Please model this.
Amino acid sequence: MKKSKTSFFCQHCGYMSPKWLGKCPSCNGWNCFAEELVAAADSVGSSERFFDGKPLPIDEVPATEGERTPTGLDEVDRVLGGGIVAGSAILIGGEPGIGKSTLMLQVMTNLAQGSRKVLYVSGEESAAQIKLRADRIGAQARDLFLLIEVSLEKILDQIKKIEPAIVVIDSIQTVYSAELMSAPGSVGQVREASSRLILAAKKSAVPVFLIGHVTKDGSIAGPKVLEHMVDTVLYFEGDSGHAYRIIRGIKNRFGPTNEIGVFEMRDRGLAEVPNPSAFFLAERPENAPGSVVVTSLEGTRPILVEIQSLVSPSNLGMPRRTAIGVDHNRVSLLVAVLDKICGLQLGGSDIFINAAGGVRVDEPAVDLGIVSAMASSFLDRPVDPRTVILGEVGLTGEVRAVSQMEARIKEAARMGFTRCLIPKTSAAQPPGLPKMDIRPIRSLAELLENLF
Ligand code: TYD
Ligand code: MG
Model:
């Protein structure tokens, strides 16, 4: 009998070490190493057999752009790059309760209604619970099979037996292999389960969705290695206080990354939001000081977002700076620039910035919008509600170009905006833009002249 081999794994990030360590050199976590059995030699061998290792001239490699299966939800298809690629492994991460199971159940129902046999494996909920959810979202399909199972070997057996067209594993952290001695959910188990499921997917060309929980700090629980193993990583994000949910492509071997799909959680499941700009601007107060609209580019899609700011005199020794939905450091920098270059005395004010609707906008292109919102609130003068403001702000108060200006302006025009404040360098771009009052801005001083 072969001697089984063990290694020590960081339970946070999956770092492997032959010895026990007190501190993980990769994620700097303390006391997070556990000894785990490394996969039995046999299962490693099986992956070697799959890759039979004969070099081919590239001309002779068949150029099949894997067949894509549409999911029936345009927002999901867009993120995947046009549908599910045969044999691909897709990881869906997200916080508990965000709606991963609901989304996958909807996708599976759509596929099953197109008379494809699909298999939903759950190790988290009972069949009755899933049935309740299915009834709630009106998911009825004869070809949707439900399997409540956590044993990897049994799941693989059933996949072979049922021969589904698509498999969902909800969640990968619950699956465990009897061949390893470590506990379910440990790094070794998650990696072993994923690699064997992915291998099965590649061999049979059956796509597999792996649902993965994320930890408090936002990464997929257990192994980072999981992200390297799969073809596509999607994150499902949103805010528990808001109904909207965004599915974001982080990695995609078969399509674009950073593309997003927008959904709204309703009482009967997730509904697509085909027009996110309208959705995020729906409750915007017009003519209120401190409210400004920017266009943020999410993947290839421009989305209009309202930035709100409240600047009020502080009675604290250290005035408050709070930023929600935008980068905190960026805001500090912009406050300093506005203070120094434009002479607005913001030093003694509490400043709050919020991207309305609970979205996150992390682009430098929204700098000018943030500055405008702060100036508008500080001076207590509203910005014209039909104005969109775009531009990156440098430390000397200069306004820099942003990418994809044309797409951003088009989206603003489509939503009925008539005036744009944009960087001078971008304004020099060739026309073909919709008719608009476009004001080129070179510096923050020019911004204040044109803002109101
Ligand atoms: P779920 O899909 O179970 O989340 P996850 O699998 O990511 O943990 O979604 C659970 C939440 O969604 C729960 O708080 C209830 C809510 N929900 C609705 O608001 N409407 C619905 O139609 C469904 C099915 C769930
Ligand atoms: Mg779930």
